[in-house]
Design a protein that fits this description.
Layout: E1 6-10, H1 11-23, E2 30-34, H2 36-41, H3 44-53, E3 58-61, H4 64-72, E4 79-81, H5 90-95, E5 98-102, H6 107-118, E6 122-128, H7 139-150, E7 155-162, H8 172-187, H9 189-196, E8 201-203, H10 207-213, E9 220-221, E10 246-251, E11 254-258, E12 263-264, E13 270-271, E14 276-281, E15 298-301, E16 304-307, E17 317-320, E18 332-336, H11 343-350, H12 354-359, E19 367-370
Parallel strand pairs: 1-19, 2-3, 2-9, 3-4, 4-5, 5-6, 6-7, 7-8
Antiparallel strand pairs: 1-10, 10-18, 11-14, 12-13, 14-17, 15-16
Helix pairs in contact: 1-3
């Protein structure tokens, strides 16, 4: 018997979020939708299809394997491998028409060799480190790489990009640092345009950058978490009407009346403060429902809040449905969503970020795309 827990992926909410993002940008700016990590846990193929239908210009993945999955799922849009392509993967990436991030000049040689064997140019996006300190060439090295690419017919410069490190920060220094990153990046534009023409796509803004610096967009933006309905900005900052795309639902698996003083779950962390009606829901930390939610989370049953009681287990979580009318085995339970707790609230309770909450919704939970 299949477990009754599913993650509903609401494509109408995804399309709504795309429109919210577009409204923040100058006319003509395109978007490179980030669908890495299984589209932040939402299901890469259905999300990619929806973004393709909604006019995305490109898609971004982390690995060659993720890119191949999209191609095998019928996705035709340009796909950029944001984590880079290692030498053994270069031929496979090119065979599946994937673009590669170039963040080290040493990559030029093996990408060019793979392209020569395939008989067609390898599309690349040069990544400039303007202050992230992760992947990327420092500006002077990036311009040297540009010169090498210009003299290497086996490579085709498709994009020029950077990554903002602090666009989501709350301090004045974070905004100043982001502005400095964007200024450094902007200074490179005339030289790259002169060498390669207007077909090269410049892109810098992630979700936080879009929400705060949308007027500074270049040719493309790279929305990630905002596509999926969560804001990367600090709590309390102005809402942009983003709608959560994922809703996790389950059913009551077991239901019992427990007397006052009866313990619930491991280590007796919860004892009934009177006669309580306790339901068991088949989701646990193996499914990404974190143990840190023990005693401080809630689900929703028939529109009523049902607090999580006792330690969250690997496969099951207990909720108190005392006083909720009509509950029986098989009754629907919203685990994560608008009536229970969203990913952002769960993240605050767990001391993390909504990205982690979403990507850790486990593979045992089927994704069901709905309109």
């Amino acid at each position: 018997m299949a477990r009754p827990t599913v993650a509903e992926i609401r494509l109408s909410a995804l399309r709504h979020n795309v429109q919210v993002i577009r409204a923040l940008l100058p006319q003509g700016v395109g978007f490179l939708g980030i669908v890495k990590a299984n589209a932040y846990g939402h299901g890469a193929i259905p999300v990619a299809r929806a973004l393709e239908a909604d006019g995305a210009r490109m898609l971004g993945v982390a690995t060659v394997e993720e890119g191949v999955e999209l191609r095998e799922g019928g996705i035709l849009l340009p796909v950029v491998v944001l984590g880079g392509v290692e030498p053994p993967q270069a031929a496979e990436a090119l065979a599946h028409d994937l673009s590669a991030i170039l963040f080290d000049r040493g990559q030029i040689g093996y990408m060019a060799r793979a392209a020569a064997v395939a008989g067609r140019p390898f599309p690349v996006h040069v990544k400039v480190d303007t202050g992230m300190g992760r992947l990327g060439l420092l500006p002077r090295e990036a311009m040297k790489a540009a010169g090498e690419i210009a003299s290497t017919p086996a490579l085709r410069l498709e994009g020029w990009m950077t990554h903002l490190s602090s666009a989501d920060g709350s301090a004045v220094e974070d905004r100043e640092y982001t502005a400095a990153q964007l200024a450094t990046f902007r200074e490179m534009l005339p030289a790259v345009r002169k060498a390669f023409g207007s077909a090269v796509a410049f892109h810098a803004l992630n979700s936080a950058g879009i929400l705060r610096f949308g007027e500074d967009a270049f040719d493309l933006v790279r929305p990630g978490i905002s596509l999926y309905g969560c804001s990367p900005l600090p709590p309390g900052e102005a809402s942009h009407d983003l709608r959560p795309v994922m809703r996790v639902v389950s059913k009551v698996l077991s239901l019992k009346e427990l007397p006052a003083g009866h313990a619930v779950s491991y280590n007796r962390r919860y004892r009934c403060d009177g006669a309580r009606r306790i339901a068991v829901v088949p989701i646990g930390y193996a499914d990404g429902y974190r143990r840190a939610l023990t005693g401080c989370a809630r689900m929703s049953v028939a529109g009523h809040p049902a607090p999580v009681v006792g330690t969250v287990c690997m496969d099951h979580t207990m909720i108190d449905v005392t006083g909720v009318p009509g509950v029986e085995i098989g009754t629907d339970v919203e685990v994560m969503g608008g009536a229970s707790m969203g990913a952002e609230e769960m993240a605050r309770v767990c001391g993390t970020i909504p990205y982690e909450i979403l990507v850790q919704v486990g593979p045992r939970i089927p994704r069901v795309a709905i309109d």
